[in-house]
């Protein structure tokens, strides 16, 4: 089954962009996924193809019009999840990426200017307001590319090794353990001895311990969720210390 990606954007020339090279590009050539970039201006009805207007109540910038965006959304399949890229949205996580990648595809609505008229989300509650991170970009296109890349690499056959998409950051609630490769000695720094031992059980234990320690130190937000879930029994009640 081909994973179908539809992007509603004011800049369709940005796609597939970097998704046309490397693993994603080869998968696109094989037909593992498809990319359709739809020009939002095509759904404007005035001769100037107007897609935005000034904010109600005043303020800087322009706001994307709900009538134009509504017609754009009506033109796409409703069988796929629809994401609207906006810094007001919930930061997307690997768990959601994996769920999207397992489905028929995704439609991504790219924000611009001061964002969307809020009535759009009232009229289309199935649209998920999503952000890439706690940052503000010039538009949703670059965030959409990142999300599509995260999905495409999980499609069957895209990555060489089946385990490549499993043993990495965020898949089990932790950031990934540190990696090393040859040369064994570089500028007086050596690869940890356990990784050269050939003892797979010890290597697995070391990697798990390092993943936990690095997550605790670098991402206390992830560690709090991970340690809380780990201490939660199947009944849903907390264990007593």
Short description:
S-adenosyl-L-methionine binds at residue 111. This protein is an alpha/beta fold and 241 residues long. It contains 7 helices and 9 strands; from the N terminus they run E-H-E-E-E-H-E-H-E-H-E-H-E-E-H-H.
- Give the radius of gyration: 22 Å
Overall strand count: 9
How much helicity do the residues have? Answer: 25-40%
**What's the CATH topology name of the largest domain?**
Alpha/beta knot
Q: What is the architecture of the largest domain at the second tier of CATH?
A: 3-Layer(aba) Sandwich
Main CATH class of the largest domain: Alpha Beta
Task: Walk across the major sheet and give the strand order.
Answer: 2-1-6-5-7
Through-space gap between termini: 49 Å
Please, what is the CATH homologous superfamily of the largest domain?
Answer: SPOUT methyltransferase, trefoil knot domain
| Count of separate DSSP helical elements | 7
Low confidence ranges: 236-241
The residue-averaged pLDDT reads 92
If you had to describe this structure to a student in words, what would you say it looks like?
The chain has 241 residues and is of the alpha/beta class. The protein has two domains: 150 residues, Alpha/beta knot, CATH 3.40.1280.10; 61 residues, Trp Operon Repressor, Chain A. The protein is built from seven helices and nine strands. It has a five-stranded parallel sheet. Strands 3-4 form a two-stranded antiparallel ribbon. Strand 5, helix 3 and strand 6 form a beta-alpha-beta unit. It starts with a strand and ends in an 11-residue tail after the last helix. The relative contact order is 0.13. The C terminus is likely disordered. It is found in: Cytoplasm.
């Amino acid at each position: 089954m081909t994973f179908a990606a539809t992007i509603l954007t004011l800049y369709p020339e940005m796609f597939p962009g970097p998704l046309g090279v490397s693993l994603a590009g080869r998968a696109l050539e094989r037909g593992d996924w498809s990319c359709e970039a739809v020009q939002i201006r095509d759904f404007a009805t005035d001769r100037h193809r107007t897609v935005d207007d000034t904010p109600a109540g005043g303020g800087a910038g322009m706001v994307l019009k709900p009538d134009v965006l509504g017609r754009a959304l009506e033109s796409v399949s409703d069988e796929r999840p629809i994401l609207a890229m906006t810094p007001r949205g919930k930061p997307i996580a690997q768990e959601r990426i994996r769920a999207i990648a397992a489905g028929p595809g995704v439609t991504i609505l790219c924000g611009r200017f001061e964002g969307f008229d809020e009535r759009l989300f009232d009229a289309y509650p199935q649209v998920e307001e999503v952000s890439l991170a706690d940052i503000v970009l010039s538009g949703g296109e670059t965030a959409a590319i990142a999300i599509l890349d995260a999905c495409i690499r999980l499609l069957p056959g895209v990555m060489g090794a089946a385990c490549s998409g499993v043993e990495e950051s965020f898949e089990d609630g932790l950031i990934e353990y540190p990696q090393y490769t040859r040369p064994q000695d570089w500028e007086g720094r050596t690869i940890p001895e356990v990784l050269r031992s050939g003892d797979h059980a010890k290597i697995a234990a070391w990697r798990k311990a390092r993943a936990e320690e690095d997550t605790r130190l670098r991402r206390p937000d992830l560690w709090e969720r991970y340690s809380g879930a780990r201490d939660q029994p199947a009944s849903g009640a907390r264990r007593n210390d």
